[in-house]
Write a structure and sequence with these properties.
- The structure is a single chain.
- By secondary structure, the protein is an alpha/beta fold.
- The chain has four domains: 3-115, Response regulator (Rossmann fold), CATH 3.40.50.2300; 120-308, Rossmann fold (3-Layer(aba) Sandwich), CATH 3.40.50; 312-384, Orthogonal Bundle (Helicase, Ruva Protein, domain 3); 407-459, Arc Repressor Mutant, subunit A.
- 42% of the residues lie in helices and 14% in strands.
- The chain has 19 helices and 18 strands.
- It has helices spanning 11-23, 34-43, 84-93, 105-113, 118-135, 146-158, 175-184, 206-211, 228-231, 247-259, 285-290, 296-302, 318-334, 342-350, 356-370, 377-381, 407-421, 426-433, 437-446; strands at 3-7, 27-31, 48-52, 54-55, 58-59, 74-79, 97-100, 137-138, 141-142, 165-168, 193-197, 236-240, 261-263, 270-272, 276-281, 305-308, 454-455, 458-459.
- The strands form six sheets. A five-stranded parallel β-sheet has the order 2-1-3-6-7, with helices on both faces. A five-stranded parallel β-sheet has the order 11-12-15-10-16. Strands 4-5 form a two-stranded antiparallel ribbon.
- The protein is globular.
């Protein structure tokens, strides 16, 4: 039976929490101060520790260092102050989560229900490491390079906690796969995992998609709608392209992260949710803060545990591994036996792959379709030269914007000029303009050019969601 240690100087709080914890199937031990807590730790290693932040003989955070095998113990800090600084200090000190007094009973039950046996979680992580040594897989990710081993170690350490994770990396580096792996290695793998691309939702709809709305709250709201935070309750919510979220909505997101509560559009009734948030961006987050794209307070709340996703060009040896795996999947799906020549894999490794793993996967699929039984890598690569691999076009076009021109008209003139200068390649046009690919798609659609241009070497017929 799992064991819980409750450390609080208020007797009524200790007794009420002990009764609730025991009702969830735990044995319990209680302590009124740090000294008594140290004694209890020597008697039995707990599976979960509930620690009051302020104790008569010290700070509750001081007890964390005394807990052996912290990776196998769920540490929950209890505080009367729900500030961002307190939450971040608790999570960085090793706490898996924190509760605000008066303790929310439903949230405490949710935490207790997701506490697995320590040996189960340890075995799960050990199995993943064994699989990595065998074939290079770690959760949903594939790679054996040294830089990926560092990434896997970071994920292993933070996954069992409730800490918010910020994934930072170029498009196509596998941020959503990393988020799925974090979820499946967490203490809530049987609960929902929901992914939201903040840059792919209309600014007019994103609040409703995130938090939901009541019937009749606006034109077209013909029924109640449960948002992502409500549907992901108990699980993990992955917020991709977080810097594309409207600033006014970032305030509401910060409040949910701090309090675990939100309101649907059209009501003042609060809804409670227990969601672990993993955010991602392909921008420099500090630059996004400086430019006003990301609120500083939200950035600091998300940046509890930042993880840098390595680009494919830095993953020595992984290009060949990934390419062969993608080809194997295609052969299996279509009952074929196409192969890469040995020297062909070396040519793949020499390519820089500015679109990272996504670009490599798309390339393998095109090469498979066009290739014979032995795929000619050289010929296939000759078709994917991109502006990032040559010198950037010189900015020869000069735009004159007269005083009095509307911002919308000026924006249209700038976008169309850049689109023409970069040969209609949407990805590089968006990068040079400093906007998301989704934003560029939307603008081109407004200008009646949604079918124009190319993306990654392929003709683009319509706007699609960007990673």
């Amino acid at each position: 039976m799992a064991h819980a240690l409750i450390v609080d100087d208020d007797e009524n709080t200790r007794e009420s929490m002990a009764a609730l914890v025991e009702a969830e199937g735990f044995t319990t031990a209680c302590a009124a101060d740090l000294r008594a807590a140290h004694i209890q730790l020597t008697r039995q290693q707990p599976d979960i520790v509930l620690i009051d932040l302020h104790l008569p003989d010290g700070d509750g955070l001081d007890l964390i260092d005394a807990i052996e095998n912290r990776s196998e113990t769920e540490i929950i800090l209890i505080t009367g102050n729900a500030s961002v600084d307190t939450a971040i200090a608790a999570l960085r000190a090793g706490a898996a989560d924190y509760l605000v007094k008066p303790v929310n009973i439903a949230r405490l039950r949710s935490i207790l229900q997701r506490v697995p046996k320590a040996s189960d979680l340890k075995s799960q992580i050990g199995a993943l490491r064994s699989e990595l040594r065998r074939v290079g897989y770690f959760g949903h990710m594939l790679g054996k390079s040294p830089i990926m081993s560092v990434l896997y170690d970071q994920i292993s350490r933070v996954a069992p906690t409730a800490a918010t994770v910020l994934l930072i990396g170029e498009s196509g580096t596998g941020k959503e796969l990393a988020a799925q792996t974090l979820h499946e290695m967490s203490r809530r793998p049987k609960q929902p995992f929901m992914a939201v691309n903040c840059g792919a939702i209309s600014p007019n709809l994103i609040e409703s998609e995130m938090f939901g709305h009541e019937k009749g709250s606006f034109t077209g709201a013909d029924r109640q709608h449960r948002g992502y935070f409500e549907r992901a309750d108990g699980g993990t919510l992955f917020l991709d392209e977080i810097t594309e979220m409207p600033i006014e909505l970032q305030v509401k997101l910060l409040r949910v992260l701090e309090t675990g509560k939100f309101m649907r559009i059209g009501t003042d009734k609060e809804v409670e949710t227990d969601v672990r948030v993993i955010a991602a961006t392909n921008r420099d987050p500090e630059a996004a803060v400086a430019s006003g794209k990301l609120r500083a307070d939200l950035y600091h709340r998300l940046n509890v545990f930042p993880i840098q996703m390595p680009p494919l060009r830095d993953r020595v040896g992984d290009v060949e591994l990934l390419a062969q795996r993608f080809l194997d999947e295609l052969n299996q799906a279509h009952d074929t036996h196409k192969t890469f020549p040995p020297e062909g894999l070396g040519k793949l490794a020499a390519h820089r792959w500015p679109g990272n793993v996504r670009e490599l996967r798309n390339f393998v699929q095109r090469a498979y379709i066009m290739g014979e039984e032995v795929i000619d890598i050289g010929s296939a690569l000759s078709l994917v030269a991109s502006p990032s691999e040559t010198e950037a076009p010189a900015p020869e076009t000069v735009i004159e914007i007269p005083v009095g021109m509307s911002l919308a008209a000026a924006e249209k003139q700038l976008i169309l000029a850049a689109f023409a200068m970069y040969g209609g390649v949407k990805k590089y046009t968006a990068e040079q303009l400093g906007i998301s690919l989704k934003t560029l798609y939307n603008r081109l659609e407004e200008y009646g050019l949604q079918g124009a241009g190319v993306e990654g070497g392929e003709i683009t017929a319509k706007a699609t969601s960007a990673d």
